[in-house]
């Protein structure tokens, strides 16, 4: 952890803006607990990735929430390249004062230097690849940059560190652990699949029971069963006989593959969700 923190801080010194990448389904649970301390006063944009998998209204409420906390926030879908233009605009906006001051001194604007920071699996590599595209050009090492750090050109206005800052997730809270596991941010071996499936069933039943009924051909009565019994019914329906571990894994994979609807797992703090409704 100390090494990850030190490496992230080293990279921070090289850039103008940090893109803090989180999973839009778990914006809080996929943040590193020490992120504020690590990033310090460096300009930062919080980017809720995988917005295609999250509940759009909740994503907007989360953005409102972060903005109410004076954190710049926006949503993207790095896999399909959606939202990247807004992200670029936001970066330019953040640097406009600085460049205006430089211009007043007769200094020409230069490329804005960016780095991506986040816990594993939030889409850092996907975003780097999308940002840079196929025709990426490596601009070579800069003075003071270790050999391992290279800059990738993003259009004419940006340079991106080719390796992201990787932070560790926080999962001493079992609920956060379940959310991280459901979204694939921590290894399945660290959790009990049946626990995860029961938690998921409860969430989907509360959010969108129809999708569950249709996917696993469940009746209304079956959906009223206690969760453990419902899991047994689904196990049979999937043809796994008594193997509810296999059925649990299938349920979790279905969630990850967006077969159980757009489900955001982190709840927006109450006072913020009302902001989005006004
Ligand atoms: P990391 O560098 O932060 O560890 O994450 P990485 O880019 O490797 O992405 C982790 C997984 O999340 C990948 O799926 C990737 O395709 C997927 N992903 C990244 N961004 C998005 C997004 O905006 N929307 C969706 N739906 N998925 C996204 P994978 O299953 O591990 O690999 P694969 O699908 O590329 O085979």
TrEMBL record:
It is found in: Cytoplasm. It holds the Pfam family MMR_HSR1. GTP binds at residues 49-52, 121-126, 165. Gene3D superfamilies: 1.10.1580.10, P-loop containing nucleotide triphosphate hydrolases (3.40.50.300). Residues 5-169 form the CP-type G domain. One of its GO terms (biological process) is translation. InterPro entries: G_CP_dom, GTP-bd, GTP-bd_ortho_bundle_sf, GTP-bd_ribosome_bgen, GTPase_MTG1, P-loop_NTPase. One of its GO terms (cellular component) is cytoplasm. Keywords: Cytoplasm, GTP-binding, Nucleotide-binding. GO terms for molecular function: GTP binding; GTPase activity. It comes from the Bacteria. PANTHER family: MITOCHONDRIAL RIBOSOME-ASSOCIATED GTPASE 1. Belongs to the TRAFAC class YlqF/YawG GTPase family. MTG1 subfamily. NCBIfam families: GTPase_YlqF. Required for a late step of 50S ribosomal subunit assembly. Has GTPase activity. This is Ribosome biogenesis GTPase A. It comes from Abiotrophia defectiva ATCC 49176.
